[in-house]
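Progress against Task 2.4 (sequence-to-structure conversion) is shown through the following example record, which the project officer requested during the mid-term review.
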Amino acid sequence: MRIHYVFVVAIIASGWSNVLGGGMGGDMLDMLRGGKNQAAKGKGGEISLKGKPTQQSSTYDQKMSPSSNAVDGRTKGNYGAKSCSHTKNDKKAWWKVDMGGNKCVGKVDIFNRVDCCKERLRGAVVRVGNNKDHNKNAKCGIVTDAMIKAKQKISINCDLRGKYISIALERQDYLQICEVKAYTGKCGNTGGNTAISLKGKKTQQSSVYDKRGTSSNAVDGETKGNYGEKSCTHTKNDDKAWWKVDMGGNKCVGKVDIFNRVDCCKERLRGAVIRVGNNKDHKKNAKCGEVTDAMIKANQKISINCDLRGKYISIALKRKDYLQICEVKAYTGKCGNTGGNTGPGCGGNFPLSHGGNCYYLGTKEIKFDEAEKKCKDKGGHLTSILDESENKWITEQAVDARKSLWIGFHDKHSEGTHNYVWFDGSTYDYQNWARGEPNNLGDEDCTHIYNNGGQVGKWNDLSCNAKKGYMCKEANSKCGDKFPLSYGGNCYYLNKAKKTSDEAEKRLQSSRWSLNQYSKRKGKRLDCSTSQSSRHVHLDWVPR
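Structure tokens generated for the chain above:
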């Protein structure tokens, strides 16, 4: 009987006037906001760009076409009128303006040259963000042929926050811009502290004391603090009793208000930990704060500042006791800057985005175990690296921060090259060890990624007591218990036992899908390759 590898994946249907170079390029996930790049039906207020500092990759003629011409207030499209910027024939020529502060940019208007060569703007990428390296900011949109042919003014919808607006080509060519105008947008909810509706949302708690104390009472809209009025939750005397609410989607939570019981036992909330995150296991989400004695004594309403993103809000004790809550209210926050390197669902504890995952870069140099604890407290782990693209992106962050970074690869539990594991349980088909590594010189069980020298981007094993920067990756909670591993928007199950293709088929059928169903749906033949390996792996898939 032949032994097979079975690998099935579901793709789920995310100086100032004359400076050469644009900084280091990035393989960042581009955030596309606002749908198609069509002219907005209405304008927000104009953001004043006139006289603001500008840069471009080079200047064709310092007297005729400095970068500042694109914000001089004149929209004339004739180069001879000295009102257009113009670079040399650069590779990926670029232009940018510093707006002087974090602005919500709803729309960018670009006025093209009309006397010649208007096609040079074709494919120009418009970005907004806070990173000086324009490549690392979020994308508003791209200039198309249709836009160029339609008229001189090209409008790109944006709705992103940032300090910089940039326009850049992705090929070698001249970049010429005769004016740039920007208008304010909404950028999500900017009002702060707007109530997040929790009434009627799904709730859970560790246990129920009696029928008067159900978990849903904490989101019934009533702040009465008397248990007899059937408006408070109440658990049994549990070890680390907990309560949580599913907000129904990823929300930016700026503040959580907890209304305590007033007729009895208000001290039971002492030390309760409030968390927000996307993990169904509340303990793995990031902490907003804890309830103190002073808060309990001051008022029935206890306010905890948060500024974290997530689907779940939880309240949990760290000891054995009854947990009782008479109401929970939540309000929106800022959750960091939503421009720059953020992506859909990223922000707060994990502001960086790549390949559909959210990350946090820790620049303080600490020991390996300390770094993992920091990541777990935020709701993730030291990062896994699953392919060349992810390795390249993390290397760029390390180089930019000038820090060698801990990653979550280690053999602390079982010494040996083939015993390395990722903290987050990911598979380890991809590795990028430096030459001769890992060598376990002096009991080296932990892994970091080089940020400089001839080994930049390569991995090295090192003593876990060394101090390095670190990269965290947010735990992905969308996949669930049957398919706990996640990469690139897909959910995986790893079985390390030997399996034939028939056995793998049976395993898939138990999860509602089979190899035959998959092949039929995709209209493709499934190939299984034979292997004589002593370890055999199959990966199942399930749609979300």
